Amino acid sequence: MRDLRRLSSKLNLNSIKLITAGWLTVSLIGFVDATYLTIQHYRGASLDCYVLRDCEEVTTSQYATIGSIPIGLLGALYYVSIILLTAAYLDTKHSRLLTIIPLLTTLGFLVSIILVYLQIFVIRALCSYCLLSALASTALFILAVISVRTSTK
Amino acid sequence: MSTSRNRKPHSAENSFGTERKRKAKRVAAWSGLLLGLVFLVFGLIYFTDKPDPETATQGLHPVPASGRAVGNPDARISLVEYSDYQCRRCAYYHLIVTELVEEVSDEFRLIFRHYPLRNHAHALAAAIAAESAGRQGKFWEMHDLLFSHQEQWAEKEQTEALEIFSQYADSLSLDVFQFHRDFLSQEIIEKVNNDYQEGRRAGVRSTPTFFLNGQKIMNKPPTYEGFKALILETKSELN
What is the per-residue pLDDT across B91-131, written as a single tens digit (0 to 9) for each? Predict the structure, then answer.
């Protein structure tokens, strides 16, 4: 019985390691993507998109900014905070961080749903860079769900 | 007894040492991460806007001054515009540039070059339509029509968009039959493609991109006043 418990806690530890590695990788991808969008926004440049070719429709729409802040910048801040929080967890092993990150990824996931909805039904155009970010935040959320399930086991 | 007394401070020193090492490691890891992120951002800024090494190493005027030109041919200032008829921002900047040409055309020469983005279904056709009209001496008229009526054709199916271009040709009193023949000419397609390729080599990655006397304008002024000030500033620098 004790062996089983030890084994299960070892497995948990391994899956938490995998999850943190996943968080780091995915949020790094999201960070690069969102930063690129932000840079292009401030340059006032339209994007040379090769797949899903309506980047410009989306990034120049009224939904691309909140006030004067581009959504890309908010995205970049979101991803960088996931990177830093995950790094903080790896450093301190504070279990509280394992509850903060899932909360944040839930928020990110909900925002992504809204943004994808806007692209499909309101702007009626899809932008590949924006969808990549939506995919990244969905992946972060899925990993977060797994992490919560693992730590409550 | 004496040995254990000797050992205690020794082991405390040891653990102090490992603690210090641990701390140094943490500081190094965090600084590495933060530095990495900063480098990533600067790398993105740099690499997404880098001209091709070919032109960069040549150290030549990065933008060939050929293309459709308007304004003062003897002016010491040249403004090269790489644009796409289907891009909304290009239509917006077209208004600014038109006003510049009307108000301060003595100061500079505008050279227009095509950069039809591949994600715009009719951008290439529109560029070809403008050049075809140019064969009958009405490039700028067609150019203005395409930009000012962008919303009429940008979202249409291809055949409809082409039909609209023909109507523009007709409204400009062009020989529509000839316009259609020119539209299919390989020479025009090559000219547009050549503009695109040269733009790409000069570092154009998005539209509109402007070069003022060969220097890419990094932060395009969003207003007529801003653009005019930029041109006058360049003029005063030359004097």
Answer: 989 999 999 999 888 888 899 999 998 778 899 999 999 99
Are the C-beta atoms of residues A93 and A116 closer than 8 Å to each other?
no
Angle of the A2-43 helix axis to the A71-92 helix axis, nearest 10:
150
Secondary structure letter of residue B60 according to DSSP: S
Quick one: which of B45, B83, B51, B47 has its CA closest to B67?
B83
Query: Exposure of A18 by Cβ count < 10 A (0-12 exposed, 13-18 middle, 19+ buried)?
Result: middle
Q: Where are the beta strands (DSSP E) in B12-170?
A: 68-71, 77-83, 108-114
Inter-chain touch B37–A31, beta carbons under 8 Å: yes
The span from the CA of B156 to the CA of B154, in Å, is 6
List A residues 2-31 in contact with B (Cβ-Cβ < 8 A): 31
Residue B54, C-beta contacts closer than 8 angstroms, at least 6 positions apart: B201
In chain A, how many H helices and how many E strands? 5, 2
Q: Which tokens is B34 given?
A: 């933060």
Residue the block writes with tokens 């279990």: A95
Q: Which A residues, 75 through 134, put their C-beta within 8 Å of a C-beta on chain B? A: 80, 83-84, 87, 91
Whether the per-residue pLDDT at B20 is higher than 50: the answer is yes
pTM metric for this prediction:
0.58
What are the pLDDT digits (tens) for B154-182? 989 999 999 999 999 999 999 999 999 99
Please give the Cα distance from A108 to A138 (Å, whole number): 8
Q: Contacts of residue A84 in chain B, CB cutoff 8 Å?
A: 33
List the single best residue of B35, B119, B219 to mutate versus A (max A Cβ within 10 A). Answer: B119
- The first and second tokens of residue A148, run together, are 């919560």
Is B159 in contact with B146 (CB distance < 8 Å)? no
- Measure the CA–CA gap between A111 and A100, rounded to whole angstroms: 17
Strand-pair category, B209-212 with B77-83: antiparallel
Q: How many residues does chain A have?
A: 153
A32, A46, A53: residue with CB nearest B206:
A46
